[in-house]
Specification:
about 230 residues, mainly beta, Thrombin, subunit H, 7-stranded antiparallel beta sheet, 2 helices
Length: about 230
């Protein structure tokens, strides 16, 4: 099996993972993938027991594929596991472009992948262009300078345009967004479409500080009244 040397990208990327856990219960959660290659990756931060030989689904950005679990071990954080996964033969890697590049992950447009996504509960408000739809007071569970993921049983359809507002320190930030992924009964991924580079960097620095200070758990009072 070593006759095909494989380049690996060590940088962590955000993924969504789903399937049946080792106890036969369905799960769907955000996780990290590292040591990625065109054939597989190492998952971390999985909060469900996994079993070698089972098949799970993994999504990166808008691309999905099925993988076989080849090894499992306890994770660095309590009640988490790490797992090595190998893509099935009839599937295309969702991070193929990253795995075949010698560079750090960079999305089209230059600097998008600089913005690491943080797993914090970050209060946001979602509103719409028409006044007939109710504003949604909610929290992102995964957020970075380019977008966020909101867990909800009733996600909006892919392509839905929204208005997003949130607080950074004592300043209210407003931007437009678009739903890029929609997972029924789970949540939706929203891309921020109107934040200039300065605001993106400011938001990212704020999130970095929050994650360091609260251990990535809860962003309490993310600003001066962002509820």
């Amino acid at each position: 099996m070593d006759d095909r040397p494989e380049a690996r990208v060590e940088a962590q990327i955000n993924v969504r993972v789903w399937g049946l856990d080792a106890e036969g219960r369905p799960f769907f959660q955000n996780a990290h993938a590292g040591s990625i290659s065109s054939e597989g990756a190492q998952l971390s931060g999985v909060r469900h027991p996994l079993r070698v030989g089972d098949v799970i689904g993994i999504q990166h950005n808008e691309k999905k594929a099925r993988f076989k679990i080849v090894w499992v071990k306890d994770g660095a954080l309590p009640r988490t596991v790490e797992a090595g996964v190998q893509i099935l033969s009839n599937q295309r890697s969702p991070w193929l472009d990253l795995a075949t590049s010698n560079e750090q992950p960079v999305a089209p447009g230059g600097n998008k992948r600089r913005f690491h996504r943080h797993k914090v509960l970050f209060p946001i408000e979602i509103s719409f262009g028409d006044s007939r739809r109710t504003h949604l007071q909610t929290s992102a569970t995964d957020i970075g300078g380019r977008g966020c993921y909101v867990e909800t049983l009733l996600p909006l359809q892919v392509g839905t345009k929204v208005n997003i507002s949130f607080w950074v320190e004592s300043e209210k930030v407003q931007t437009t967004g678009i739903v890029r992924t929609s997972d029924p009964n789970v949540g939706m991924g929203i891309e921020f479409t109107a934040l200039d580079n300065v605001v993106q960097e400011w938001l990212q620095a704020h999130l970095d500080k929050l994650d360091d200070s609260i251990g990535g758990k809860v962003a309490k009072g993310a600003g001066g009244g962002g509820q």
